[in-house]
Write a structure and sequence with these properties.
Number of domains: 2
Mean pLDDT: 84
CATH topology of the largest domain: Porin
Number of strands: 26
Bound molecules: 2-acetamido-2-deoxy-beta-D-glucopyranose
Number of helices: 4
CATH architecture of the largest domain: Beta Barrel
Low-confidence stretches: 1-21, 191-206
Helix content: 10-25%
Oligomer: single chain
Order of helices and strands: HEEEEEEEEEEEEEHHEEEEEEEEEEEEEH
CATH class of the largest domain: Mainly Beta
Strand content: over 45%
Shape: elongated
Amino acid sequence: MRYSQACGSLLLLVCLAGLGCIQAVTLEVREGNSTCIKAEISAFFSITYNASSGARSVQVPLPNTTRVDASSTCGTAGGLPGLVATFGPGHAVGLSFSRNGSLYSVDNLTLQYNLSDPSIFPDANSSDVVTVVSTSVGIRAAINTTYRCMSATSVAVGAQVVTFSDMRLQAYMPGDDLSPAETTCAADQATTVAPSTTRTPSTPPPEPSTPEQGVYSVRNLNGTICFLAQMGLQLNFSYVSQSQNKTIQEIFNLNPNLTSSSGSCEASRATLVLVQDRTTTLGFTFSMNSTSNKFYLSAINLSADWPDMTVPFSAGSTELDYLRTTLGRSYKCNMEQSLPVQPGFSLNTFRLQVQAFNVTTNQFATAEECQMDQDQMLIPIIVGAALAGLVLIVLVAYLIGRKRSHAGYQTI
Ligand SMILES: *[C@@H]1O[C@H](CO)[C@@H](O)[C@H](O)[C@H]1NC(C)=O
Ligand SMILES: *[C@@H]1O[C@H](CO)[C@@H](O)[C@H](O)[C@H]1NC(C)=O
Ligand SMILES: *[C@@H]1O[C@H](CO)[C@@H](O)[C@H](O)[C@H]1NC(C)=O
Ligand SMILES: *[C@@H]1O[C@H](CO)[C@@H](O)[C@H](O)[C@H]1NC(C)=O
Ligand SMILES: *[C@@H]1O[C@H](CO)[C@@H](O)[C@H](O)[C@H]1NC(C)=O
Ligand SMILES: *[C@@H]1O[C@H](CO)[C@@H](O)[C@H](O)[C@H]1NC(C)=O
Ligand SMILES: *[C@@H]1O[C@H](CO)[C@@H](O)[C@H](O)[C@H]1NC(C)=O
Ligand SMILES: *[C@@H]1O[C@H](CO)[C@@H](O)[C@H](O)[C@H]1NC(C)=O
Ligand SMILES: *[C@@H]1O[C@H](CO)[C@@H](O)[C@H](O)[C@H]1NC(C)=O
Ligand SMILES: *[C@@H]1O[C@H](CO)[C@@H](O)[C@H](O)[C@H]1NC(C)=O
Ligand SMILES: *[C@@H]1O[C@H](CO)[C@@H](O)[C@H](O)[C@H]1NC(C)=O
Ligand SMILES: *[C@@H]1O[C@H](CO)[C@@H](O)[C@H](O)[C@H]1NC(C)=O
């Protein structure tokens, strides 16, 4: 009952904003008389697609009309157990499980979406059904326990992102109900209180100052850190305010204390997804170019669903080339940097250091400093050189003057 209350308050909070309700759904895979997989989850998908006006990104919540597809299986006839949930005309999300000793895990997360659904993908210039798979999902739990993760956690699936929250799920179930014993995800262990019951979508303050620096990392399945970042982040975007009945320019600082992070590391791509207050999701994708031996920030996505917004805000670009750095190094920029993402949305970074690939021993490698920092460091050098020059001129002038007066004295 505790859970359904938490869920009820979440429904109330998030649905007040109108569109983009995020609600919990319960899904169950049965075979014969017994249940083998059960999931209570909230999820939304951040999908970027090509529209006639250019790349667009949308947020698709898992609706409460979601059904368990007949292709779901307990794996009793061979193969792995899997849950396939479908909604709308041909959209689906699938989880396939495996067990190893006393652990079970999600092997693959599959996302399928039908671009010919105009209610979700308006103006799409393709009508394809797209399927993307991730094999590094990071959901693992002890057998006979329920995997529990109330915090929002995001998984990069191809170029798209799936964000789960309020999740309780179990596979290889010994009974028909979720086991009371739980395996809690790392994100929940970090926060002392369940975010869904205590955090309300806060209206951001009007004129924030310099944002606080947050420290974020992403781990591999084997627990080693594969992505490191520390940065202060400030969003600059415009939206139509309900209370003011006009478009306002918002400068919004991310508060690291209220931000949960997640992400994934793949061979040539790494993602970091930051979620604040459940209402603001900021995603970064770093790509590797092995030809030039560099990594760079290739995509930024923002979605926000604040109570004051008439419609949820969603913007992003997948064609960026920022923070370019040699592989095996980290990128550093202490000065404020402004990264335009798309007209009407830019991201300001402060005291930033990031390394998206080749992180060893959980530390940043040697930093490549941005030009602005280098210029900044040049100032004391220039001032110093100028001062030294001045001293030299005074000294020379003094010596010449002394020699002249000396000479003058001698002639008398
Ligand atoms: C389901 O349970 C009923 C009653 O407990 C039993 O008669 C039936 O054989 C079971 N069916 C399967 C497929 O196990
Ligand atoms: C969008 O179109 C461009 C150019 O046609 C293509 O390179 C890109 O892969 C497309 N993106 C998606 C998400 O389909
Ligand atoms: C689809 O969209 C992309 C980018 O928005 C554009 O480059 C491409 O030409 C479009 N393709 C068609 C068939 O309209
Ligand atoms: C995709 O959506 C279109 C339009 O809603 C529908 O006609 C088609 O059957 C869907 N495709 C699949 C595979 O469900
Ligand atoms: C199962 O776990 C063991 C020990 O952790 C590992 O050596 C083995 O490769 C794993 N097997 C599979 C199929 O993942
Ligand atoms: C899941 O991943 C495994 C290993 O990559 C692959 O063999 C399997 O076909 C995948 N399953 C699905 C449903 O994509
Ligand atoms: C899980 O529970 C079942 C049924 O209660 C039991 O038979 C099995 O030994 C348990 N497995 C582990 C690894 O605890
Ligand atoms: C962890 O996994 C990554 C790739 O997934 C691998 O490069 C690294 O060596 C592994 N570390 C350990 C300690 O096994
Ligand atoms: C925010 O963006 C607007 C429009 O692009 C720009 O004029 C303004 O200077 C930006 N403000 C900050 C603090 O970055
Ligand atoms: C909002 O502004 C528009 C025009 O600027 C006006 O027509 C409309 O009545 C206003 N709505 C409210 C609720 O004030
Ligand atoms: C974040 O938490 C730290 C320590 O609890 C506190 O000093 C700091 O002021 C908090 N920052 C914000 C922006 O709330
Ligand atoms: C990778 O770098 C090479 C050389 O600098 C460049 O020609 C190429 O376009 C880059 N590829 C991508 C995908 O950015």
